[in-house]
Amino acid sequence: MEQQASSCVGVAEADEKLMKVQSAISQFKMIKGALIPVLHEIQDIYGYLPEPVLQIVSAELNLPMSEIYGVASFYHFFSLTPKGENVVHLCLGTACYIKGAQGILDRLSTELKVPVQGTTEDNKFTLEATRCLGACGLAPVMTIGEKVHGRLAPNNIPVILKEYK
Amino acid sequence: MKLLTDLEAIRTLTQARLDNRRITGESPDSISFRSVMVCGGTGCTSSDSNQIIAKLNQEIAGHGIQRQVEVVRTGCFGLCELGPVVIVYPEGIFYSRVEVQDIPKLVETHLLQGKPYEKKIYEKTKQDGEILNFEETEFYKKQVRIALHNCGVIDPENIDEYIGSDGYQALDKVLKTMSRQEVIDTMKQSGLRGRGGGGFNTGLKWEFAAKQDKEQKYVICNADEGDPGAFMDRSILEGNPHSVIEAMAIAGYAIGSNQGFIYVRAEYPIAVQRFMKALEQAREYELLGDNILGTGFSFNIDVRLGAGAFVCGEETALIHSIEGHRGMPTPKPPFPAVQGLWGQPTIINNVETLANVAQIILKGAPWYASIGTEKSKGTKVFALGGKVVNTGLVEVPMGITLREVIFEIGGGIPGGKKFKAVQTGGPSGGCLTEEHLDCTIDFDTLTSLGSMMGSGGMIIMDEDTCMVDVARFYLDFTRDESCGKCTPCRIGTKRLLELLDKITEGKGSLDDLEKLENLSVQIKNASLCALGQTAPNPVLSTIKYFREEYLAHIEGHKCPAGVCKSLISYEIDPDLCRGCSLCAKKCPTDAISGELKEPFVIDTAVCIKCGVCFDVCKFEAVAIV
User: Chain A contacts of B615, Cβ < 8 Å?
Assistant: First the structure.
C-alpha cells in the first residue's frame, strides 16, 4: 500500500513538472531564440536537463536533438546529468584563487572523496568549481545550495560539511 | 497609471526624503529622524544583511520609533571587505562587520539615545577621539562616483527614489528637447569609451547604427560579466538598475530602435531579480513601452539570461546566444552596428558604459570630458581583489596612478607582506609590477605596458603568489572557455597550458620558454576573436616581467613563492615544534609521526603536500622548503 501511495505521489510530481515545462514552452514558443530561455526553465524545474524532456522541446520547437544537445553542452550553466542534494560551488575566480581557493578545493575533494564535477555515492553532495561568484570581498568563497560561506580556510571544510550531512 | 506630469511631482516629493540621507555632521536629538542604510549588494547579502534588516525593523517596531527611522536596503557601498555595512544618517556613522546580535544594542544606543555604537564603528573613521565622516577616509576620498553615484544612496527597488535623484530626467530631456544627432554628438563630445574592455568610442558606435537605413534596429546591454574578479556590472544592476534602463532607452532613441535586450548572467540572481523589478516599475510608470512621456517614442526591453560562457562577452558571440545558438563569434566586418541581431543594425553596450549616459546628458559633455585624461575621459570602476586590505569596488577618475589605487584607496598589502604584481583586465590582461606603480591608469597606457583596462578587475598579488602559477591559472581558464571554433585558440591555448603545467611541475626546459613565447605570438595573430587574441597576454606579461621566476622553476627546480606543489616539500623545524601532535592528528595520509612533547617529523615519501600541517600548526614550526 505504502509503496503504491508514494509512487502515486511520484507520478503526480512528475506530471506537475511536465506541466510546468509545457507552460514554459508555450510562453517562449512565439519569441525568436526560444531555446535557451526554455532550457533555463527546465533546469530550474528539474535541476538538470533530462533527455526525455529535451525530446519534448525538440518536437515543440521543431529543432533537431543535435542542435539542442549542441547548445546545452556548450554552456557551463546547463547540466545533462542529475546533481546531488547539495551542490557545492567553490569559486575559482582570480581573487579567490590568489587567496588559496585551490587548497580549499583539494580539501573538499578529499573530504567528500569525489573529484570536481563528481557526486558522492550517497547522492548528498556534488562538487563543482565555478567562475567568479562576484563576492571577491569574501574570498575564498563557496556556496552550498543558496548559502554562501566566505573567508574560508581548509580547516573550516569538515565543520561546514557536517552541517549538511 | 502615472501621468507624465507626475515625473516632476514624484521628484519633488522624494527629493525631500533623499535629503535626509545627507551627512550634516551634527548629531540630532535622540529621537529625531534618521536613515539607516544597509548594504544589499551580493557581498553583504552573503553575510546576512537581510537578517540584519529584519532585526532592525523588529527592534525599531519594538521601541515604537518607526516614524522616526527609515531602514533602507541599498546597493553596494564599495567596501565589501567590511561587510555587512550599515550607515546611519544624518551623522553618517559607518558601521562595519555588523552582526545580527549587534542590532538591539545599536538601535538602543544610536537610535534611541543618539550616541554612536562604539563597538562596530569602522576603525578608520575614528581619529583622536573624534568620529570622521566616512567620505573623508582614504578609501572614499579620492573616488569620483558617476557610474556608481546612486549605489548605496537609494533603494534600488524603488523607482521613486531613482526619480528623486534626477532619474529619468535625461530621458525626458532627450525626448523633448534634443534631436537624435544632438544626442549622438553629446556622447561623442563627452569622449565616453566602452567600459566592457574594447574601449571603443560610444558616440561613434551609436552613430554607425543611427546611419543605417533599416526599420528594425536593436540595443543590447551586455551584462554577462564573465571576467573572474570583476563585479562592477553586477553591483550597478543591484544598486542602480534604472540607470541602465534609462540609458538603453536614450540609446534606442539615438539610433532609431524600439527594442532592447539585456543579456545578464544567470549566476547573478540578485541582479536579475532587481533588474526585472525595475523593468516592471518603468513599464508601470510608462517610461518604457509605447509613446513614452507622450513624445511618440516607443521602446521595450526584454531580458535574456546568459548561461555561463565567457566568450559571450564578445559581441558577435553574444548575438548568436540571444538568437538561441551556441555563443560562437563570427568575423567582423560586418560589425553588429551594420548587421547584428537577426541581421539588423545592433549596438551592444556594457552596463558600466550605460550607467554614465544619463549623467552625461544631464550635466553635459564638457563636464564629463573635463574628468580623466586626454584620450580616456571620465571615470572607471575597478573591482579591487586579492591581497589588498580594502577589497571592494572603487570608482576613480582616469589618469590616477596604480599606486594611489592600490596603496591609498586599497590600503596596501595585508599582513606586512611585499607587493609583487597587479593583474588588470582579467584573462585578457596582463601583470604589472612595482616599477609600473606610478603609471597612470587609462586605456592606452595599460595597453602599451602589455596589460589592458578590460572590464576592470584589479587583482593584487603579494610575495606569496607564484607568477608562473598565475599564468597557468589564466590559461586553464581561457582553454576551458575557448568556444573551439578556430584552431589557434582551441589547440593553441591547450598547448600553452601543457607547457606551463610542465614548468610548474619542474619538468620544463629553456626551449619550452621559447616555445611559449612563439606560440603566444601566433595565437594572438591568428585567432578569430578577442578571446584568443588576448589569451596569451598573461603568459607574455609574466615572462616579460618575471622571467627569473620562470628560470627558477626551470633551472633551479624551485618555486620561490612556495606555491607549485611538485617543487615544494613540508618540513617541521625541531626547534619550534612543541610536540603537540595536532599536525599528526590532522594529516590525511598519516605522514607525520612523533612522541608527544618531542619534535614531530614528516615522511616526505607519504606526504601529499596538502598543507594541512602548515595550516594547523600554532607554533609556525611547519615550513615550506
Answer: 153-155
Q: Is B222 on the interface with A (CB under 8 A)?
A: no
For residues B585 and B596, give the distance between their C-alpha atoms in angstroms, rounded to a whole number. 12
> What's the start-to-end Cα distance of chain A, in Å?
30
Q: Can you say whether residue B535 is alpha, beta or left, with left for phi > 0 and alpha for psi between -120 and 50 degrees? A: alpha
- Give B305's contacts in chain A (Cβ within 8 Å): 36-37, 40
With an 8 Å Cβ cutoff, are A133 and B267 in contact? yes
Per-residue DSSP letter, B417: P
pLDDT in the model for residue B5: 56
Would the pLDDT of B36 be above 50? yes
Distance from CA of residue B13 to its chain's centroid? 33
Calculate what percentage of chain A has a pLDDT beyond 70: 94
The helix/strand/coil state of B27 is coil
Whether residue B386 lies within 8 A of chain A, CB to CB, comes out as: yes
Q: Does B562 touch chain A (CB under 8 A)?
A: no
Chain-chain contact of A110 with B610 (C-beta, under 8 angstroms) = yes
The closest CB to that of A74, out of B309, B342, B586, belongs to: B309
Q: What is the pLDDT of residue B463?
A: 94
pLDDT digits (tens, 9 = 90+) for B129-164: 888 888 889 999 999 999 999 998 999 999 999 999
* A132, A138, A144, A148, best to mutate vs chain B, most B CBs in 10 Å: A132
State the Cα–Cα distance between residues B154 and B394, nearest whole angstrom. 18
Q: Which H/E stretch holds residue A90? A: strand A86-91
Residue B602 has pLDDT above 50, yes or no: yes
pLDDT tens-digit map of B189-204: 999 999 988 899 999 9
Alpha carbons B140 and B334: distance in angstroms, whole number? 43
Q: What ipTM was reported for this prediction?
A: 0.90
For the whole model, what pTM was predicted?
0.93
Closest CA to A164 of A86, A66, A74: A86
Within the 12-71 window of chain B, which residues sit less than 8 Å (CB to CB) from chain A? 42-43, 46-47
3-state secondary structure (DSSP) of residue A144: strand
Query: Which of helix, strand or coil describes residue B161?
Result: helix
Q: What span, in angstroms and rounded, lies between the C-alpha atoms of B525 and B520?
A: 9
The mean per-residue pLDDT over the stretch B597-605 comes to 92
Q: What does B248-293 look like in DSSP terms, one character per residue?
A: HHHHHHHHT-SEEEEEE-TT-HHHHHHHHHHHHHHHHTTSSEEEET
B327 to chain A: which residues are within 8 Å by CB? 74-75
Least CB-CB distance to A135: which of B46, B457, B461?
A: B46
Q: Which of A31, A75, A99 sits opposite B386 (nearest CB)?
A: A99
How close, in Å, is residue B16 to chain A by CA atoms? 34
How far apart (Å, rounded) are the C-alpha atoms in residues B131 and B125? 6
Chain B residue whose CA is closest to A129: B477
> A71 vs B324: CB contact, 8 Å cut-off?
yes
Beta strands in B104-178 (DSSP E): 126-127, 130-131
The predicted pLDDT at position A8 comes to: 58
User: Between vectors from CA B9 to CA B6 and to CA B10, what angle results, nearest 5°?
Assistant: 85
The chain-wide mean pLDDT, for chain B, equals: 93
